[in-house]
Queue: 4 jobs
Job 1
Amino acid sequence: DWAKQRLLELYASGLIQQAYGLTSDSVPTYLSPGSMVTEASYIVFGIDTDGDGVADIIKARNGTTGKVEFSGTDAAAVIQSAIDTLYSSDGGTVLLKPGLYVIDSTITVREGVNLIGEKSNEFLWDGKPIFKYGVTLRTSGSIDLLKVSDHCVVENLNLHGNYTGLRAIVAENAGKFILRNLYISDFMDTAIYFKNVLQVLCEKIYVITQGRAIDTTEGQCDNVQFNTCWFLSKAAERISGNGLTFVSCDFSHTDEPPEGYGMYICGFSAVNFIGCIFEESVVQIHTLLEYTPDE
C-alpha cells in the first residue's frame, strides 16, 4: 500500500513522466476533455434511454466538424458507416466512447482504419489486469464480432460473446495490423482466429472463453507475436505458423480440455515460447505430422 501510494504521488507530481520523457506533446490525445471535436476522425457514443446500461441510440460525430453524421439504434451499422467512410477516403480513427454497445452483425475494420476504445480504467484481480468502465461490444447472437484488415489497429475494447457469439476477432488474408489492450470473454468457438496473416502484433490481450483462445492452423501465420497475453479457455489451443512467437504469455484451462491436451502444434511450424506459463493445463505439445521413428 505504501509503495502504491508513493507511485501515485510521483505520477501526480510529474516526476515519472519527466524520467521517461512523457509529455503532453509526446503522448497522443484522442479526446480533449469536455470536447467532441478531437484528433479522432469519428467519435461514436451511445445514449441509454431506459436506464438498463445498454446504449439504445448510437451516434457518430465527425471529429473535425463536430457534426453528427450517422445515428440509429443499430450500433454495428453506425460504427460500420463511420469505418466505411474513412476507408473510402484516407483512413483514420474511429473512437468509441465508454458504454455497452450490443452488436447484431459483424463489424469489419477496414484497411487503414483504427477502432479505438476510449482508455478504460484498469484494476488488478488475482494478479491479472481486468478492464472496467470502458467500451464493451457485446454480441446478440451467433456471429463473429470483429473482422480485421490490413494496416489497422484495434485497441482498448471489451469484447463479450454473451455465450452465443462465435469468434471475437477474425483475420483472413490480412497483415500489418495491431491488436492491443483487449479483454475477450464468453465466445463459444474461438476468441482469436487467424488465417493467412503476416506481420501482426498482439499485446495485452486477456481471454476467458467457452471455446479455445487461439486458432492459427487453417492457413499461413507468419511473423506474428503475442506479448503479455493471458488465455483461459476450455478447449485446446490450435497453433501453427512460421515465426509465431509468444512472449510472457499465460496459458490456462478451466477444466481438462476435451481433446486430452492443452495445445497442439500442427504443420511445419516454427513456434517460439519465451517466458510463458502453462498453468492448470495438461501440458502437451501435440503434432499432427505423420513421421516414422527413423525421421
Note: The longest helix spans residues 75-87.
Job 2
Amino acid sequence: EKMTLDKENLTLEIENYSVVNGAQSILSFKAEEENLNSNIRTLVKFSTVGNDFTLTELISTYNNNQNAISLRDLRSSDSVQLRLKREFEELNDKYSLGYSYFSKAGETSTSEVIDNGLAAQLIMSGYKFKPYLTHLKAAMFDQRYSEVFNRNTKASDILKYYDIYTAVIQVGDVIENEGVSKYGLARFTVVSILCRYIKNSSDLISLWIDIDQYIQDRGKWRNLYNYFIKLIWKLIKVKLENEEKEEGFTYKNYFKNEKNIDKLMNEIITNIDIQLSIADMDNTKLISLYFSQE
C-alpha cells in the first residue's frame, strides 16, 4: 500500500505488501534464511496500489499470478493461521472431534480436513455475507486477506459454517436443478442466508453462539439446518424462475452479482418468516420441536 525510499541509507520500506509472482522464491529464501548473505541479488518490481482493488487484480493477471495455493503457502506462517490451527486442535481435544486445519498445500491427515481455502469461503459467506466473492480464492489470500482472516476469526465459528455447508451438500438437489444446486456460489449463498437468519433471530442465536452448548446440540442443529436449507432452496427456485424470464439470464452470472445476491438474501430472509407463519410455525416452536428430541 505504501513504500518509502531512503536514498541515503539505500533502503526501501514497504507496508502491507502482497506477492503477485514470486511466492516460491520467498518460501525458498525463508527455508534457507540462515544461509543467506549480502552477496545475493534478486530482481524485484514494486507497484503501489493503495486501495485500488481493480488495479491489484489487473497486476495479478498480467504478471502471471500462479494460483491461490502459492498465496496460501505464503500465509501459512501468519499468526492468524497458526492460531486457527491451534484452536482446531483444542476443539478436538475438548470435544473429542477429529478435524485437521490445513494452511498450505502438501499437508496430509487421516482425519477430516478443513483447509484455509474452504475456511476463507466459509468466513466470506457465513460471517461477511458476501457469497458472490467466494470464487475469488486468490484475492482472499491477497488484497482481501485481512478482511477474512483477523482477530475476529475463530475456529469455533468456522466449524459452525462448515456444518451448514456440509448440510447444504448432503441435502442435495431439492429444486430439481442440478446445475444450480451444485454450483459453488449458489451453495455459499445458502450458507450466507442461513447464517444471517440465525444471527438475526434472538431465539436461535442464543443457542448457537455458545460453543459448549452448540457441540452438545450439534446433531439437533444438523436436523434444523436440513429443514431451513430445503426451505431456502425452494425460495431460491421461485426467485430464479422469475429471473430466468429476463433476456440473457445465466445463473452463474446471477450468483456473482453483488446487487442481485444482496437483494435475494433480504427477500428470502423475510420470506422464511412468512412461510413459517403460513405453516403456523415460528422459531420458538421450531426450537421446541427440534431441541426437545432425544
Note: Strands lie at 2-6, 11-15, 99-102, 112-115.
Job 3
Amino acid sequence: DELISANNAMCPGTTYTINAFTAGSTYQWYKNGTAISGATNSTLDVNSAGTYSVDVNSSGCPLKGSIVVEYYPTFSIPEKTFNYCDNNLSGIVPINLNDISKQLLPNVNSDYSFKYCVDKTDAENNSTNYLNDWSFSSDTSIYVRVQFKNCDPVVQKVNFKLDSKIILNKAQPINICDNELKGSKEINLVDYVSLFSTLNNLDVQYFKTLSDAKSASNPIVDPKINLNTNSTFYYRIKTNTLCPNIEELQFNFKQPKKSTTLLDAIICPGQKVSLDAGLGFDHYRWSNGQQGNNL
C-alpha cells in the first residue's frame, strides 16, 4: 500500500502504475469496488486516491489482489504583501522569515521546508543562494520555495512594503519663565503636541533621549515635568494608519533678573517712601500700573 501513515504516499499530480501481470491471464480493475470501464490490461495507471483491486483469470484460475493508494494533500501559496513600519527609525526593517512562513502556511509541520531567495530562478532551481537573516529598506519582493517531503515545490513571490511615516512639523524652542522665582516651573508635554501635528487620534510617547525614542524604550510616564534647567524632550508620534516619527522640543528655562536695590521698607501711616528697582532691566511695571524704574 502507498499510505500517508507509512510515509510512502504519492505526491499530488503524479501517476502510480499498478502491475498485476500474470502470463496468459485476463484482467478487470476496480476502484473502491466499482469496475473501471476499459481497465482490462495487466497494468493500471492511477492518479487519484482509492482502493484499487483486480480480478485475474489465469487459465481458468481466479486470482484477486488489491492495493490502497493515498496522495499527500495539495497546497498553494497566494502572492501576498506584508506591510511594515520602520519602527526603530533606522531606515532598515529586519524580517524574521520564520514568522513569514507561519503566515504563508499556518499550522504546517516539519514536513514542509521553506527557502527564500532574492532571485526567482534560484528559488526554482533550489539554489544554495537562499536568505537567512534579511532586511529591507524600500518596497521590494523576494521568492519563497515551499516543498512538502520530496514532492514538487511551489514557488511564489512575496512582497514587502514600507508604510509611510507620519509627517511632523519642526518646533521652535519654547521659553519657560520662572516668574515667581521658585527655581522650577511645571510644564505639561501634552500641551505642545499640536506643534508637531494637528491630526486626530495621535498616539504620542515622550522620551528624554533620542535613542530611547527610536527604540521606544523608557518612555516618560507622567508628562508633567518640573523644569529647572534647559531641557530637550523627544516626541514619538504615530496613528493607526501612519508609522511613527520623532521630533524634538527644546525648552529654555529662564528666570527674571531680581532687583538688588529694591528692599523692604517700614513706614509710618501718612509717610511716603521712594522705591527704586535699579537699572539694567528691559521693562518696568509696578503693581499700580506705573512704569519706570522709580516709584
Note: The first strand starts at residue 16 and ends at 19.
Job 4
Amino acid sequence: QPNAKAEATADFTLSPSRESDENHRFLVLADPQIDFAVLETARGGLLRAGRTASDVIVVEPFEAQRARLAQEFGVTAQAAADARLATANTVVWAVKPQLFAQAAAPCAPFVAQALQLSVMAGIRSGAVAAASGSPRVVRAMPNTPALIGRGIAGLYARPGVSEAERVDVEALLAPTGALLWLDQEDKLDAVTALSGSGPAYVFYVLEALMQAATEMGLSPEQGRALALATFDGATELARRSPDTPEALRAQVTSRGGTTFAAISALDAGGVKPALVAAVRAAQRRAQELGDEFGAV
C-alpha cells in the first residue's frame, strides 16, 4: 500500500468507455492507488452494460501502477491526461472525498460540457458543479455488492439534469443493482450511513456468528456456511413477506425458548441501540466530509 504522502500526490484514473452510440462516451475518474475497489465497482457497471475493458483508458503517472491496471483490469493505461477528456458526455467521479479538489483541478478545462455523475461520499453536488463547470450533476451512493450486481444506490439530480440524462444514469448504474431516487440531497448522507456503509455492518455480524460457531465446536467452514445461509435466507424471507422484521422475529421467538434467550442477551447488551448509534455516527461523518471537502 502507498504511504500517506504518496496518496496525497497521486494522479487519478481517467477511464472513458466505448460509446453506447457514436456520440456518447463515458469518463470514469477514480484513484486506484488508494482504492482499486472503487474502479472495479464503476468498471463492473460499464462492463455489465455491454462495454469492454479494451475501451477503457486510464491516466496514471506511475509506470508500475499503469502495468498493474493493465494486468488486473485489461485497460489501456497512459501516463498523462489530455484533451481527450473533452470527448466524454458523462463524467463519473469516484475519487476519495479528501482528494476531490486535487482530482478536479486538472480536469476542469475539459469536462464542463459533460453530465457529472458523482459516487463520492459527502461531496455535495454544488461542489461538483463548481469544480467541473457543469450544472448538470447527479450524485449516487452505491455500495460494494454492486460488484456482483446486488447493490443498491441512492440517487439525487440537480435541477439542470434532464429526464433523458436521468435515464442515461439509470442505464449506466442499473447493472450494479437497485436504484432509489431521492428528492433532497441531504438524504444521501442517510443513504451513505445505511446502505453505503451497511455491508460492513453485515460482515461484522457475520464475524460474530462465525466466532460463536467455532466456540461451540463447529469448524470454521461449517460456521461460515451456516452464517451465510442464515443471512441470505432471512433477508430473502423479509423481502418476500408482507410482515415487518419485528413481526417475523416474534414468530420465531417463543418465550422460554432458545431464540428468546438469544434476543434477551442482545437486548441486555444494548445491541439494537448500538446499531442505531453506529448508523447515525456514519451519517454525521458523511455530513462532516461534506462540510470539510465538499462545500461550495
Note: Strands lie at 13-16, 26-30, 57-59, 76-78, 90-94, 115-118, 137-141, 151-157, 177-181.
